[in-house]
Amino acid sequence: MLETSARLLALLGLLQSRVDWSGAEIAERLDVTDRTVRKDVARLRELGYPVDAVRGPGGRYRLGAGAKLPPLLLDEDEAVAVAVGLRAATGMAGFEETGARALTKLEQVLPDKLRRRLAALRQATSAGPVNTDSNVEDPVVDPELLNELAAAIRDHQGLRCDYRDTRLELEPYHLVGWQRRWYLVARDPASGAWAPYRVDWLHLRTPGGRRFTPAEFPGDLTDFVVREVARTGWAVHVRIRIHAPATEVMARINPAVGTVEAVSDTESDLVTGGDSVEVVAVWIGMLGLDFSVSEPPALVENLRALSLRYARAIGG
User: Fold this and answer.
1) Residue 35: inside a domain
2) pLDDT tens by residue, 19-42
3) Rounded to an integer, what distance in angstroms lies between the CA atom of residue 109 and that of residue 72?
4) Is the pLDDT of residue 126 over 80?
5) Where would I find the HTH deoR-type domain in this sequence (predicted)?
6) What's the total number of domains in the chain?
7) Which CATH number is 270's domain given?
8) Would residue 134 count as lying in a domain?
9) Taking the C-alpha atoms of 108, 110, 112 and 113 in order, what is their torsion angle to the nearest 10 degrees?
10) Quick check: 121 and 77 in contact, CB under 8 A?
11) pLDDT in tens, 247-257
12) Cβ–Cβ contacts within 10 Å for residue 88, how many?
């Protein structure tokens, strides 16, 4: 049996990891009697933890919301930052379960207003696959903008926004985090077209758009984002002639890198991009296949500089 202090921490961990527990479940988990559970709950209350209970057979315990509980003395921006970080951690191998548990604990002990904001952010976001890196500084996204987008998704509230140089009205559907970027999947109500929009290129206008009835998304959200970003979401877009069949190119790349179009039995085009020509040049070299590039000029110049640098490296 655990000592009292260790048992109280274990009890607190149980209460934070799930909405509620029966007294019998807690007693079994901690290997104590029902009477000890009641005493430990009373001790937690004395320490300032609001533990709610329903008396009688099958009575249950839950951690009340709204108190500033140590060590979770977080202001709203800090709580959002923690939630975003935990959400990202759940998309990393080995952190799925622990990240989800920690996020649940965080939500359980925060005031109702903030808990609803974090729940909206959690439900509105997911993470895409990590496959490449960039030499470009990550864009800064205001946490409040993510909150506003998550709330609009939750409440089915249309958006009026400026996207780069274009003014748009959108029906927001979902947020996807990929390659350290945030993308809003949204539908154009006029055309019915779906597209991912980089959040750091998005500026909301007020008042917002009209409320809408969400349409069902046609397909897999993450696959859609990584495919469409390869076409429209990069700062640099290129079409590269690969001197190999399309099947061979597709076998060598992550589908998130771009799309492959067959040209002939021996050649294909790779449509891809990145945040800089330097990054694109590195990706192309990693294919291990012969290729030709004629544009954009900046990429041609970067490849020429790389070829000279590599030649010098081996004394050529």
Assistant:
1) yes
2) 788 888 999 988 898 889 889 888
3) 8
4) no
5) 4-69
6) 4
7) 3.30.70
8) no
9) -140
10) no
11) 999 888 876 67
12) 16
